[in-house]
C-alpha cells in the first residue's frame, strides 16, 4: 500500500508554513499565538488575522525553561516556555500577541513568567460549567473580540464573523468525516498520520488545511472501497494534548501492531466536536464553553462522551495518556479508569513526558495491554 | 525561661476538642468541615453552626490515598483524602457537610473523588481578581449562605451576621497583636508555638481560641517587658499552609538557632490579615476575595505584601516553603525569589513533603542559609 498523498501534501505545507506566515505578516496581517483549543479562533479569522498554535512538543527547550520554572510541572508547559525563551519557535516569534487561558495551574502561573517576555492576554476560563460561569466566559469572549479589533484595527462585523464560523465549522465537519472513516474495520489511516493532521491544523492556514483534508477524505474513501488500510487491536487514546513534535504514544502503539482509531484530546475530538450553532457571539462562546476538558469541576460529560467514542470508533481499548505532572488529567484519570472498567471497557493509564528514556517500558506495558484486550 | 502557660492551655483545649465537638453535635449543632481559609466562617457561626478545619498534615494516611489518587500531587491533598478514606479524622467524621473550593487543580479534582464518600459543596473561587470575578465570588458566597441556612434550619439574620463578623474580626485583631509582639528584637514566642496557635484556631471553638490568645498576649507582653524570649536569625516562612501535624520547617529552623517571626501562609497572615470592613454580605465576600493566594492570576499584591512583612517583622531572611507538587506556590516561588532578591532580601526555597527522609538535607541547607544572612 502506498503512502497517502495528502499526508505528503501536509508535510509539504508545513515545511513552507514559516515563510508563508512571515509573508502574510509582512503584508500587514496580525498574528495571534495560541496555547489552547479554548480560544475561539473564529474571532481572529473574522478580523483577517492569523491564529497559530505555539510550539511545545519538544524536549530540547525544557532545560532552559527549568532555569525559571520548577522541574516537576508538565513537559508541555516547560517546552512552550523554553521555546519562547530560546526564541526557537517561529510561530511564537511571529506572534504579535499571545492569548493564554486559565485551564490549569501550571499554565496559569507560567504565564506570569512568560508575560515578562511577550505581550500576553490571558482569558479567564472558569472552573465550573454552570450558568454563572457561562456568563463570565461570554464576557471574556467579548473582551477578546474587542482586543482583536484593537490589535488589528479591523472591525469584526456580523458578516465577517458568520464567514469565519462557517469556515471553522466546515473544518470540524471534515474532521468528523475522517473519524467516521476510521470506524471501518480496516482503518484507512494510521493514528500517527491522523494525529499529525490535528497537530498541523493548529499551525497551517485554515484554507490550506481544509483543502488537504478534503483531498485526504477522497483518498481514504478510495482505500475503504478497496479494503485497504490498517487492522489490529483498535485503540482510542484519551487525555492530554499531543502537540506537534510529540507522537510518542501512537508511534509505539502502531509499531507493536495496534491501530489508533481516535484521540479524545485537544489534538483530536476536543478540537472539532460540537459546531457553533448560530452566528452570534453567544453561540460562539457557548460552543467553546462546552469543551469537556479535565480542567472542569466536575466533568461527567467527558466520561459519558468517552464511552460513546469507544463505541463509535469500535475501539478495543483505551490508552489514557497523561503528561507528567498534569494534575487535572491525572486525577481525573483515576475516575475515568473506574467508570470505564465498570462498563467493561479495557483501559491502561500511561503517564509520561517527552523523553526517550521510558519508551521501552511503555512498549512493554502496551504490548501486554494489546495482548490482553 | 518557663514554657508559656497559654500554650499548655492550647494543648489541653485541643485534647478535649473531639469530645466537645461531638457534644455540641449531640446538642443539635451542625458541623461544617473546611479545607481552606477562603471559606467565610462568619456565615457558619452566624447560623449557630460550627466551622472546623479538616486533618491533612500527617503522612500516615497518604498510602491509602495513593490507591485512588496519583502519587505526584501535594501531600496535603493526599493526606486529607486519606484521612477521610481511613475515617481517621474526628473533624471530618463529625462534619455534616464539607465545603471545598477551587483554589488549585489538585484539590478541585480530588473533590470529584471525595464527593463519592461525603456530602460536599464546592465554592468556585475564580482565577482572576477583577470586578467580574468579584461578582461571581459574591454569588458563590450568597449560595453558601443559603446552603448553610438550609442545612442548619437557622436564618442568618443581619444581627447574627454582625455578631459573627465582630467575633472573627476580634480574633484577627488578636493575631495581629501577636505578630506585633513578635517584632521585638527578642521574640517572646517560638515560631513552632505561634504556628500551633494558627493550626488550632482552625480546630477549636472560636470562643476558646480567643480566650487563649488573650491570655497568651498577656504572657507575651510580660516577657517583652522582662526582655525574655528568643533571639537568633529571624526568619519569615512564606508559602504553602502548614496544617496541624506539620511543624517540620519551623522545628528545623529553631533547632539550629533561628527564630521564626512570621508565617506568610494560610496558617499565618492569610488567616487574619484584612478585616471585614462592614456588616453586609458584600463586605464579607470582599474580605475573602482579597486573600493574596498563589491560586490567583496574577498575584503582584502578594509579593508587595511579602516585602512589607519582612520589614514589619524585622526578618533577616525568607524561607519560601512549598509542598511537593504544589504548582501554584511553586511556580510563583521563582517569581517571588527574583523580586525579593532584587530588593536585597535573602530567600531560600524549600520544596518538601511530610516525610522524615529529607529532614537532614533541609537542615544542612538551612544551616548554610542562616549562616549566610
UniProtKB/TrEMBL annotation, chains A, B:
InterPro entries in alphabetical order: FldB/FldC_alpha/beta, YjiM-like
Annotated family: Belongs to the FldB/FldC dehydratase alpha/beta subunit family.
Protein name as catalogued: 2-hydroxyglutaryl-CoA dehydratase D-component
Source lineage: Archaea, Methanobacteriati, Methanobacteriota, Methanomada group, Methanococci
